[in-house]
Write a structure and sequence with these properties.
Length: 610
């Protein structure tokens, strides 16, 4: 058997376990000369025959391999064979001779180089693409792949086989227009080898740096702003960002810390219309990104009205904020055509270009504009101009409280009535069919719990039984939906079945924050569309994980045979709760709706047990 094996970027212990095992069994090794650290060959047996391919032609290499096709024959390449390994021609030669082979990947030198400079090629807010290429020398590059053309993208770049051509490479890198003479660069000589050297420089000093240190070969050239100091914190590990296995969390307080507030926005758009405002916008963007927020700065947008339209578009369940540096009147006129509802409009904050005041204009409570403006004012040492009555009188804001504790406000027209009562210090009655211990503390002295929903000013419930009552209805988004469906389910039918399930279970659709199912359904488009339509997180579990959930569940022979699980929807709902519960055990969840079957689908619901 013939093995194309990646020897890694140089260090003898930076090869894969599989590669090491194959080398230990090898009878013949054809290795890539000076590109391979010879210490790697020490893994071979004493009687293994070694051939240095740097002194061989393709025909000679194939002749050796073909002569030993019935042995364990290793073609050892540097790095990973897929990059500049010239293995295509070798594979075709073996194919024509019907000689079987296998490819064993290795650690490429571009990975070793990144480790050497302690850098990440894909840095949030800086570059999300990597170009791996080489300078044209005696070996041409295809039309359209000149270094100047590729450099026009300005993303992270790695140059192989170019250390001896840096004067020309430097000129082409600058010719692309995206890199400047000051763009960070690095020369990494023999990444991960004992003699590894790293020389940091700029694009404008690449050739000079190489000449100064005598670098002419066996080096990679790294280019791009990823080597600089600026970046944004990734959303992946942000407390405010939900993933398939972790739910976004907020501190259990009415007023969150400024950093937590900034991180809860999926994106903060910042724009200015003057040069002075542009400097302030850049400073604010840097401060917000340093706190983990996803802030994007635009100085002098070509189409200011279009900038506002983009900020208002597609709000859905994602929180966005617009920070406009300029006159408040301009902001109001530009935003006016896109304003729809305080429940869905993004936060809009206006700053003067001198950085003296931060004014929340829209969505002060639900959109968290007041809290974001206060945090911005703190960062810029300016004055937050908060105009909402409950804030200036330091009284309880029911909509801000609901937002902080993840309640859906089902009757926003009632907010004004509650706020007016609070401002007058009038009694407010609260009804809930949940355990009162499950309700977050209400920071208002003049409230009481009502025994009947009809008596209440505020109703806190997952149930749809209170829709016609004159009260502020708050729906806790704390339920997990367990769902199962047939393959290639129609999206409209599944969503209709979900609404039928909610009616049958007397649940509001808004009480769900997450949908869960078996891993077999991970890419089921109908379920993903359901999650998008109802702003649900999506999480899947393996059959083993579902079977491990303790409790009493419905049973289906058919489901057991097809999936290996007796009941997908109930177990998925329970598993979804347990995944978000610290020190979870089977008593940590409560099925509030058992399995209900509809045409082609099943649903169940669970919550954390109090």
């Amino acid at each position: 058997m013939v093995y194309f094996v990646g020897a890694g970027c140089g260090a003898h212990d930076l090869i894969t376990v599989r590669a090491k095992k194959i080398l230990q069994c090898a009878q013949i090794v054809v290795y890539a000369g000076s590109l391979i650290n010879k210490s790697i060959l020490s893994y071979t047996q004493k009687d293994c025959t070694l051939h240095d391919s740097s002194k061989m032609t393709l025909e000679e290499i194939i002749a050796v391999i073909a002569a030993h096709k019935n042995c364990c024959c290793v073609r050892l390449h540097s790095g990973d064979p897929c990059l500049y390994g010239a293995i295509r021609e070798q594979m075709e030669a073996l194919d024509s001779r019907r000689i079987p082979y296998e490819i064993v990947p290795g650690v490429s030198s571009f990975c070793g180089a990144a480790a050497a400079v302690r850098a990440e090629y894909t840095v949030p807010g800086v570059s999300q693409s990597v170009i791996i290429t080489r300078m044209q020398g005696r070996t041409p590059v295809p039309d359209g792949e000149s270094l100047a053309r590729l450099s026009s993208h300005g993303c992270s770049m790695v140059l192989f086989l170019s250390a001896s051509l840096l004067l020309q490479a430097q000129a082409e890198l600058l010719a692309g227009g995206a890199y400047t003479p000051d763009t960070p660069a690095a020369i990494v000589y023999k990444a991960s080898w004992p003699e590894e050297k790293v020389y940091r420089c700029t694009v404008g000093t690449l050739a000079q740096t190489a000449a100064l240190h005598g670098i002419t070969h066996t080096a990679l050239i790294l280019v791009g702003s990823f080597l600089g100091d600026e970046y944004r914190r990734s959303l992946l590990y942000s407390p405010s960002f939900s993933t398939g296995v972790r739910t976004a969390c907020a501190p259990p307080a009415d007023k969150q810390s400024g950093i937590a507030v900034a991180q809860r926005f999926s994106r903060i758009y910042i724009a200015s219309v003057t040069q002075q405002g542009g400097a302030l916008a850049a400073k604010l963007t840097q401060l917000l990104c340093a706190s983990g927020a996803n802030a994007v700065c635009t100085v002098k947008p070509d189409n200011l009205r279009g900038w506002f339209e983009q900020g208002f578009a597609g709000q859905g369940g994602q929180k966005k904020a617009l920070v406009f540096i300029g006159a408040a009147g301009i902001a109001v006129r530009c935003a006016a055509p896109f304003i729809t509802s305080k429940m869905t409009d993004p936060a809009l904050i206006v700053l003067d270009e001198a950085g003296q005041f931060a004014i929340p204009v829209l969505s002060g409570h639900v959109g968290m504009a007041n809290e974001l403006a206060s945090y911005i004012a703190e960062q810029l040492a300016c004055v937050p101009v908060i105009t909402t009555a409950t804030d200036i009188h330091h009284t309880w804001s029911v909509d801000a409280w609901a937002q902080a504790h993840n309640f859906c406000i089902a009757s926003p027209h009632e907010i004004k009535r509650i706020a007016s009562a609070v401002l007058r210090d009038e009694p407010v009655s609260v009804f809930t069919d949940l355990p009162q211990t499950a309700i977050p503390a209400i920071p208002y002295d003049n409230y009481r719990y009502a025994e009947q929903a009809e008596e209440a000013d505020i109703i806190i419930s997952r149930s749809n039984a209170y829709r016609n009552m004159r009260a502020l209805r708050l729906i806790p988004r704390d339920a997990v939906l367990g769902v199962g469906c047939k393959k290639d389910m129609d999206t409209a039918k599944l969503q209709s079945a979900f609404l039928q399930f909610c009616r049958a279970a007397s649940l509001e659709p808004e009480c769900f924050y997450k949908a869960c199912s078996i891993q077999l359904k991970e890419n089921e488009s109908a379920i993903r569309d359901l999650c998008a339509a109802f702003n649900l997180l999506w999480q899947v579990f393996s059959a083993d994980e579902l079977c491990a959930v303790s409790g009493v569940f419905s049973y289906s022979d058919f489901t057991q045979q097809v999936t290996g699980v007796d009941c997908v929807c109930e177990r998925s709902a329970a598993a979804g709760v347990l995944a978000d519960t610290a020190d979870a055990n089977w008593r940590s969840y409560l099925l509030i709706a058992k399995k209900q079957r509809f045409e082609g689908s099943t649903f169940a619901a669970a919550v954390k047990s109090e």
